[in-house]
Amino acid sequence: MAPTYSTFGPYILFKEVLADELGHIYRAGELVKGTLGRTAWLRVFDRAAVPQAELGNRLDDANRVGETLQAANVGAHSRFSVHDGTTCNAWDYAPGQPLTAVLRKVQEEGFPVPVDNALLIMEKLSLALSAGLAVDMGGAPLVHGFLHPGTIIITNDGEGLVSGFVVGTGLLGLLDDGAANPACAPYLAPEILTTRTPSSRGDVYSLGAILFHLLTGKPLPADPQQRREVVTGAHLAFDEEPVPKDIMAVLSRALADRPEERFSSAADFKKELDKLLYGGAYSPTTFNLALFMDRLFRTEIEAEERERLTEADLDVTPYVRPEPLVEEQEQAPESRPGRGGGKGPWIGIAAAVVVVAAVGAWFIFGRGPATPPPPPTPTPEQVLAQRRAQQAQVQALVQQQVTQLMAEREGQIRKELLGRQDEINRLQKRLKEVEKSGGATANTRRQREQIQRQIAAAEKAKQNQEQALQQERQKAIEEAKRRVQATAVPATATATAVVVAPTAAPTSPPAPTATPIPPTPTPAVREGEIVAGGPGVREPVLIKRVTPSYPPVAQRMQFEGEVTLRALVGIDGSVENVQILEATHPGIGFEKAAEDSVRQWRYRPATKSGVKVRVWVRIRIPFRLR
Questions:
Q1: What is the pLDDT, as a whole number, of residue 443?
Q2: If DSSP states are collapsed to H, E and C, what string results for 432-474?
Q3: Which of 15, 99, 190, 412 has a CA-to-CA distance to 466 between 20 and 30 Å?
Q4: What would the pLDDT profile of 481-504 be if each residue is shown by its tens digit?
Q5: Amino acid 25: pLDDT
Q6: Counting Cβ atoms within 10 Å, is residue 81 exposed (0-12), middle (13-18) or buried (19+)?
Q7: Are residues 584 and 447 in the same domain?
Q8: 241 and 292 assigned to the same domain
């Protein structure tokens, strides 16, 4: 039996992901003209304490920022709206979990966030806030104002997404609610709690508060007077050791009581954080963060994969609201029959005679040279909206080009990184065995030092490979921008010439002229083109799954494992290519078994704007002994 979903405005609520002091977060489908459009994260601010009027006053600015701010770590294509008096925010869906849910799960499972992953999450959040600083808001840089775990998504692929820009000032009204205050106050600076005025240094404090929670497993106290002592004596939840001095230096400065003693902005916070991330003491990778999310939410990820297959085939007819009927306009008083026998019929007859005479004259004397009405002049708002749409489409084209350019090389480097990590794990295990086996003999010390050097060399090599991957991705981005600009510039130049050049009075019926608005580069989608997910893309749907055979060697050794790969789905639904991204116990057959299986899978092909296209899909194959 097909599941039944509830709705909120134009959204079908597929699944409630989180309930917190701000309201609810759902995985939702957006209805567009009676059809199912994008899958979206939907934050509904439906707690009684949320100041709806305050949010409503900021929605126009929030939507303008949503169109402009299209950065990698910001919720894409963010849109705010109000339905039945309740505000909501929707942005493009990327599989993952709200940070609030991550922190809750960590606490429940007793599975703390590793230090490297905590630092990497903070880098991604500071990148998002730094991107906001480039947006002008009334002559000042854009600040968030209410950075809270409920406004952050950690994706299954190891990315961090920030939502809720502009409405932060409105959400500060939650501090007046006795139930919401204890859950919101720990992430806000002391001066924000009193003045309710967001600032860039206030955002820095929020970054520090979230870092503290990730490292220690506990939020700061709601009372600012109690925080200094708690920060000074902080211990890592991961190994119950004191917070390392280099991290404590960044944390203490971010959480300084006086704003002027903090980092001046999220960008400055990130610069200092980068010294930790790439200085050699830590080795954070997106791959390891994705692995952490997979281990923590494996059951939820498997359930979501099944649920999204059902959602993709949903008949949305029962959820589409009928269009409101347009009532007939009341007749004007002059056209109503009067009491005295009425002039209305005679007026109507006279008007009909005039119309007939005009039509006859048109046919007898010819149509004559008719000057078409001038094209409507676009308003500044229309021009701005189309330019923003153009920027968004250029960014989408750049991302598509990057995906194509990096497809093969990224998979190869990730495979090398996986092998390097296995080598590090093996050496660390060997080091522990040496330390356990032996005393303080000279031979033991030499062995320990030798293994430590090998670990350091392997970690350095891994870091170099990661940097190489980042450099290649940056080169791919620059090349993609060059290609897109090369195709977009001629069209723009032509349009400008049409707008500027004066037009002479036509002596014959003129050809239609383009509306003088800078055009959006919208190259036609070619069948078979490789595209990334996004607006207009309907993802492939799995229709035939082949279970992999268990590798005999792994079965004899009683090994369980897992393989993460990505598959290129063709326009006929077949799997054209497979790339192994990650595998446990490499070399004993898990990779080949997974690849052989997936190559036999069949999909309903992906489409973009109704055209069949090729898409990479990420797949995880578990191997479990029965």
A1: 75
A2: HHHHHHCCCCHHHHHHHHHHHHHHHHHHHHHHHHHHHHHHHHH
A3: 99
A4: 666 666 554 433 333 333 333 334
A5: 98
A6: middle
A7: no
A8: yes
